[in-house]
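User: I'll paste a sequence; please echo it back and then give the predicted structure.

Assistant: Echoing your sequence first, then the prediction.
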Amino acid sequence: MAASKGNLRIDAAGVGSTPQILRLDPSWLQACVALDQRALDGLWTAEQWRRELDDPRRLCIGLVASETLLGVACGWLVADELHITAVAVDPERRRSGHGGLLLQALLQRARRHGAVHATLEVASDNVAALALYARAGFRAAGTRSGYYSDGRDALIQWCRIPSPSSPSTVV
């Protein structure tokens, strides 16, 4: 899916097959639904994705190469907090640093919008996601028992979003 005029490039990567982080808008709806099916087993419906992409209080960015959506990171801005709703990478592209790149870009964008903290829920048995979030500075703050439809527990995680001048910030 080609980038629409509403998409903004965040990084200074080159063109072509070099992955770029873009702000996703409703023109990316079908690509988000398809990625959700592959990466999250259809966690969200098309209508849920439409709301995510339409609402200006929600941040939704994607990693795109050759007009293909490789991954997404989304969150809601509430006061000075980012509530991360999804981080997903195409299963064929995992273990390439894409999840970390997306997560850092989402945190940076939220910080520019005034967020100083971020929170999320993650399945307590999702080892890869737990490692990703730990590398970004997230720490467990509690548990939501039976949170997922299959009965699994979710860990509630929080982090302070580094300021743009912080040496740990990825550009």
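The longest strand covers residues 68-78. The helical segments are 29-40, 46-54, 98-112, 127-135.
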